[in-house]
Structure formats: C-alpha cells, structure tokens
Amino acid sequence: MLNLDPIAGLLHMGYGLTHITVRGVSDSGWFLDRAPYSQDGHSLAPLDAVKKGIRLWQGQVPLECQACYPSEPWRCYFGYRAYPTLSSPLFVFQWLFDEAQMTADNVGAPVTKQQWDYIHQMGDSLRSSFHNVSAVFAPSCISHSVLTKKDWQSIKIDEISLPQALRCWEMSHPHQNGTLLRDAPLALKVARNMVRSGRVATEAPPSRRRKANGSNRGKKKKETRARLRRASASCSHHLIERCSWPQCNHSCPRLTNPFTGQEMDFIELLKSFGLDMMSVANALGIDIHTLNNMDHEELLNLLTQRA
C-alpha cells in the first residue's frame, strides 16, 4: 500500500511510461493502531515498536500521507490512515479477525470470554475503518492472508467470491490494454458470466478474424464497453461481512484449538465466547438439546439469518 503511489510516480513521471496503469491489492495488511489486549514486559507495544522502527528502518512513507502526520509519520503504516491520501486504485482484502493483528495486540489464541470480547471489538473497529474504502472484501473469519492459500478462490461474502469481486473492481477501472486478469481462467469465466456475451476480450484469434470496416469495429467496441458498464453496475466490489460472529462465514478457514491442534466444533467455539448456551438456544427459538446436536452448517444458517 505504501509503495503504490511512489511506484506509479516513478513509472509515469520518472520513466514517462504513462500508458501503464498502476493498481494495488492489499492482502491482510490493514492494521489498526489500537491499545493492545495486554502488555508483554519483554517486548515493546506495537505502537512503540513502529515509532522506533521507522527510525531504525529509515522508513519512507508517501509524502501525501506524511503531510497529514508531520510529527508522527509512523502512523502512515496503518492502512486506514494512509488510504485517504492514495491516488492509485486499491482493493483491500482483510479478515475482520486477523491473526497477525491479534498477535500484535498480545491477545493470543482466543480461549476466554475476555479475549473474545477484545477480538469482537477489534472486528467492529475494523468494520468501521472501511467506511471510506471503495473496494473492500472483509469476511468475518479468524485467519491471516488469503492470496497465498490454495483455496483463496472459494472465499465468499453473500455468495460473491473474492475473484468475482476483484473482477468487478477491475471493470470499474477500465484498462486500455485489456483485462488485468486475462490469463486467469477463473477470472475469464467470471467475466463471461457477468457480461453474458461469451467473450470479454474484443479481439478474436487470428484464425477467426474477419475483415470488417472501421465503422463495424467501432460499433462492436461501443457495444462491448456498454456491456462492461452494465456488468460493472450490477456487480459489487464493496463487501463487508454483516455478521459480527467470528467464523460465521461458511467459507471461513477452519479454526483449530490452540492446545490440541484439532478443529474446533462450532458449539465449542460459542462456549469459548463465554456464552450461556441456554440463552443462545432461547434466542434461536430452539431447545438446548437441539442446539447441542445441531449440524454445523444448520447452526451457521440460523446465526447468520439473525445477524
């Protein structure tokens, strides 16, 4: 995120490569400068570490952001503070309950009600920090990073997958040299479904080209642009999980017990929140026996319907 505008400036102003479009995707780098859950006597608090680190690293932050925090340039390392100063398009992916954020906040693996309360507040704070972000995908899961995971394409919010949201964002910023995701088969499939034309790229293979006069080519380009505009208007690239429960998304990576390493049952997860399960059953309109024997997917459906 910090390098986005400097790279764009270097390419456009330094090398005169104005035909190159620079955009960024932030994967799990949207941290908050909030008070930690507990203070570790053997290490610096996250904010103090960043304050000292920027001097030791000789860190360089974008001038636009530095101008907003002249006496505290280290604050530009936090996404929600740097984002308003960016001029290049940015797509933000962020788990609402990021494990790296929890580690930095010394909250550790959540097993007590106090830890869950702090983590829940963290999710609320993250959700609020996206109020001015135009392109964001934020599932209500406990994890860190997504693009390096083999199942990143399966993450969804409201039945919209991350690749679909990325494609939608791409279409909202037309690229003069064609689609950025041109070589990605899934992205092409998504684009075809969105545009409903069977083909996103306007140029046919050489073996299939037919001679056409300039007016026909111009007409086809206009029609293609119109289809892309309609597809872009009907899709979404601003997706923030409405459910405030950690792990309430069906596509969340599985959570494991920090002591046993085994996958946590969802009922066990709810109990670790410190919740009174009888109250949960009453709120859901079911008896405690039904709740304890309820299928994971069925319980998630009930909870998300009431989110």
UniProtKB/TrEMBL annotation:
Residues 197-227 are annotated as: Disordered. Signal peptide: none annotated. It holds the Pfam family PAE. Residues 207-227 have a biased composition (Basic residues). InterPro entries: PAE/NOTUM. GO terms for molecular function: hydrolase activity. PANTHER family: NOTUM-RELATED (PTHR21562), PALMITOLEOYL-PROTEIN CARBOXYLESTERASE NOTUM (PTHR21562:SF122). Belongs to the pectinacetylesterase family. Notum subfamily. This is Uncharacterized protein. It comes from Cryptotermes secundus.
